[in-house]
Structures are given as C-alpha cells and as structure tokens.
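Attaching the record inline, Q. Sequence:
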Amino acid sequence: MEQRALGHTGLSLSRLCLGCGNFGGIGSAPAFFGAGESETEAFELMDAAIALGINLFDTADAYGGGRSETWIGRWRAARGTPVLLSTKVFHSVEGDPDDRGLAADRIRRQIDGSLARLGVERVDMYLVHAPDPETPLRETLAALDELVRAGKVGAIGGSNVGADWIDEALTIAERERLTPIGWVQNSYSLLDRDAETAVLPLCVERGLGFTPFGPLSGGWLTGKYRRDEPRPEGSRMTLRPGPYEHLDREEVYRGLDAFAAAAAERGVDTATLAHAWVLSHPDVTAVILGPRSPRHLEPPRAALELELTPGERDELASLFPA
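Structure, as predicted:
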C-alpha cells in the first residue's frame, strides 16, 4: 500500500490506517465500556489490516475503558508484527467524569498507563484527544515535550481541534522551543467538510499532516439510513445518535439518493466512493478507518484504486447541503 509522509514528523503512514475505537467499547463513552468488538474480533481485524498493508493502529487510552490498548498490546505480543502505534489522552479510562483533561501531571500519569497496556516503552504518535479549556495550552505542550525528550513519545498531534488551537499551539512551541505538533486528526467526509474552511488550509501552510477520521460519517454514506425506516440495530444512530441527528433531513436524503446513483455509474458501492472522495483530497495524508469486521476493509481498499478528478470531487460535494 502506498505510504505518505506525515508532515514533518519523519513518519510514513499507509494511506489507510486502522482505527481501534470499537475494541471493547464504543469510543470513550463509559456507558459502552465492554461493548463493541470482542478481543477475538479485534484480533481478526488487526490481522486483516496487516494483510492489507496497513502500518498504523490508532487508539486512545479511554477506548473501551482501556480494553483497546490492552488488546493491541496482546496482539503485538502474540504476533510479533511491527506496526506504528498512535494513542490519545483526554478522557477517563475508568469512566470517572472528574478524571479528564490535559493537565501536565495527568498527561504524565496517562502515558505510563498507555505504555503498560500497549506493552511498549515508546509510542510512535501521541495526540491530545480534544482541547482542554481548563488547562493552559503551554502547560500541555510542555508536558508533551517532556515525554518526547524522555523517549516515551515520538511525534505529537491534535485531534478534534480548531484552527485557532492549532495556530496557538504552533506559536507557543516555536516561542518556547518545545516540540511542535506534527499533524491534525479531525472528522472529514462528504457530510462533514468543516475542515476545509480553516483547518486544512492551515495544515498545508504550516506543513502539518492531516489524518481524518469518520469518512463514512457514522454510516450515513453507506446507505444504511433511509427515509422513514427504522435504524438498523446496533448502528451509530441507535447507540450514539447525537453527533449525526442533524443529518436526518430531506436535503441529506436527496443527496444520498444522488450519491448512490453516482456510485452505481462507477460500478462501486457508496462506501467505496465515500472513501475515494476523502482519499482524493491532495492534502489528506491517510484516513483513519472504523471497520466493525474484516469485510468492512474492502470498500476502502477498493477506494485506493478509484481516482477522482478535482471536478468529480466538486460534483460529488455539490450533492449535499453545505
């Protein structure tokens, strides 16, 4: 699989990366700790990802209440297969609402927990999972720099962050001679193009990588959600509908109908075309996938072979409300 340089980090990522947010849970939500994929299913997904040529597993300390990191660590010990590891810090591993954020002492504590669960002395990539308005950004960046200098972390980045946060983080790092962030990991899809407004242009201007997640927008771009029909059992819209409830409107359904027709004209399914649209953006380094089974890796694999021109990208984007 083709690889691309991740900003100025010195790392090269496969165009597709395995997101492990459903291993033992549904993201960082305490209500779903113990749900999601079982350890056996997680092993099957990791095996399939490696067979496909994926070289990065992306997780977070709180995914599944620590189960995601633990199972990745067990998989690495059992398989002995080299793979880049990326994890994140912000949410509580135990589900404690008072144990969250990016204070320096907490970051130091959380990285040690992540390293122990992953079974490594150093993680290749470490992300803040979200901004923390209650902690000065300089304090957070100084703590991350300390981890880099101690050899516990390779590159650092920001997830779910805005352009103002990115600009401030880079300014502080330059002024204080701290390790700068090397990439951004935000949501990006045909149904969520906010990154195009300021974040992506800033990443290009400052030489940062961009590894978007959510290319299928919670499954909406697979065609599983239809007008006036019950939501499929176990889908995002039955488990955690909040982030996607705004899509439940007629303009989106019309766009999905036209999108399905555009996919059929190309002889592919909508999931393949949705992945191809994200991958075809020239400033996207790699895409974080969220498969629930090995068969869900086929559409993004097929998308690597589907080239879209800038004109085709614009045409597909025009199908949906801005």
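The mean pLDDT is 96. The first strand starts at residue 3 and ends at 5.

More tomorrow.
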